[in-house]
């Protein structure tokens, strides 16, 4: 059984991650795939149907951290595909083969809305902090 976090196929805004869907499809061709999520199961199952994702065997709700939840399963997973680096580290430390799936929000840096340098960002933060300090009124509390 391969456990795959639902966030591999769907981002936080509910949009499909096509490379994640392709990963699920390819893994499903070799083993049973169980998607797990902490989102509402009815919503997830509807999302899967609407987005044509049917390459899985089951969807499980996870209501606790991976380290507490995975041991409650009837079968030990042969692979865990997750998007959280700390969970991937935990899985590796505990003998569970894992894949950390990372998907950038913007593929190319020039398409990012904030393509400023770090120094420009720090300068802007300092400028805004200075404005906030000017707005503060000193009052005498007696």
Question: Would you kindly provide a written description of the structure presented here, covering whatever features stand out?
Answer:
The structure is a single chain. This protein has 142 residues and is of the alpha/beta class. It has a domain at 2-100: HAD superfamily/HAD-like (Rossmann fold), CATH 3.40.50. Helix content is 37%, strand content 14%. It contains five helices and five strands, in the order βαβαβαβαβα. It has helices at residues 18-28, 41-50, 66-69, 85-93, 118-135, and strands at 2-5, 33-37, 58-61, 79-82, 98-100. It has a five-stranded parallel beta sheet, sandwiched between helices. The longest helix is centred in the C-terminal third of the chain and has 18 residues, at 118-135. The chain is elongated. The chain starts with a strand and ends in a 7-residue tail after the last helix.
Question: Which residues sit in consecutive blocks of at least 5 with pLDDT less than 50?
Answer: none
Strand order of the largest sheet: 3-2-1-4-5
Please tally the helical runs, counting DSSP H or I stretches of 4 or more residues: 5
**How would you spell out the order of helices and strands?**
EHEHEHEHEH
Termini, distance in Å? 69 Å
**Beta-strand percent range:** 5-15%
Shape: elongated
How many β-strand stretches?
5
Structural class: alpha/beta
- CA-based gyration radius: 21 Å
